[in-house]
Amino acid sequence: MDYELFWISGSPYAWRVMLTLGYKAIPFKSHRIDVSTREHKSPEYLRLNPRGQVPTLTANGAVITESVAIMAFLEKAHPEPALFGDSPLETARIWEIIFEFENYVRDQLSIEIVRPLLRGLAQNDPTAMRASASSSIDSLQWIERILEHEDFLAGNRVSAADIVALPNLQMLARVGRRPEAVEMELGLNDFGATLPAIARWLSRMEAVPGYHAAYPPHWRSSETE
């Protein structure tokens, strides 16, 4: 099957799919979308994805959108190595963690922390940002507790749950190290101190096959400047 992936560097949702493809060693044709030219809103791209969002995967001409749907499709098309479990109970546990992260944690991290810092709005209300950061750390305690006893979120091997959560947590760690975040004392600049089990898990995830190929290229460029 021939795959083409349309993605934006730094999009946590595109990163999920790129890591899934890399982990399963699935070849694909890459189309990096240029946000600066609003390529994702072009008529050509909107014919593929009417919402103008990423990722979009084409598979022999069929179009699939939404990151977790693409991951589930790839699991069916390429069952090994498994990401959604082998037993019914393991599969249920993986989906449980995915939905808990998506429904109760992801938007809090994105809306209350990541977006204000990326858009230069955080310093408009440092008190509110500190409260949001404290609340976000509290919301991540369920993941912290899991990882105090497990190497990965659903047991002793990588699963879709890890791949879903990883990009958002990497994004949180990245923006938490920004000078303004440190100046406001958000407590997000050193996961080793505030969320040590998550910090160790992030290090383990860096060794996962496909991690470095999926890592946002513009992050890598800024880190080497």
From TrEMBL:
<dbReference type="InterPro" id="IPR010987">
    <property type="entry name" value="Glutathione-S-Trfase_C-like"/>
</dbReference>
<keyword id="KW-0808">Transferase</keyword>
<dbReference type="InterPro" id="IPR004046">
    <property type="entry name" value="GST_C"/>
</dbReference>
<feature type="domain" description="GST C-terminal">
    <location>
        <begin position="87"/>
        <end position="225"/>
    </location>
</feature>
<dbReference type="InterPro" id="IPR004045">
    <property type="entry name" value="Glutathione_S-Trfase_N"/>
</dbReference>
<dbReference type="InterPro" id="IPR036282">
    <property type="entry name" value="Glutathione-S-Trfase_C_sf"/>
</dbReference>
<dbReference type="Pfam" id="PF00043">
    <property type="entry name" value="GST_C"/>
</dbReference>
<dbReference type="GO" id="GO:0016740">
    <property type="term" value="F:transferase activity"/>
</dbReference>
<dbReference type="Pfam" id="PF13409">
    <property type="entry name" value="GST_N_2"/>
</dbReference>
<feature type="domain" description="GST N-terminal">
    <location>
        <begin position="1"/>
        <end position="82"/>
    </location>
</feature>
<dbReference type="InterPro" id="IPR040079">
    <property type="entry name" value="Glutathione_S-Trfase"/>
</dbReference>
<dbReference type="InterPro" id="IPR036249">
    <property type="entry name" value="Thioredoxin-like_sf"/>
</dbReference>
<protein>
    <submittedName>
        <fullName>Glutathione S-transferase family protein</fullName>
    </submittedName>
</protein>
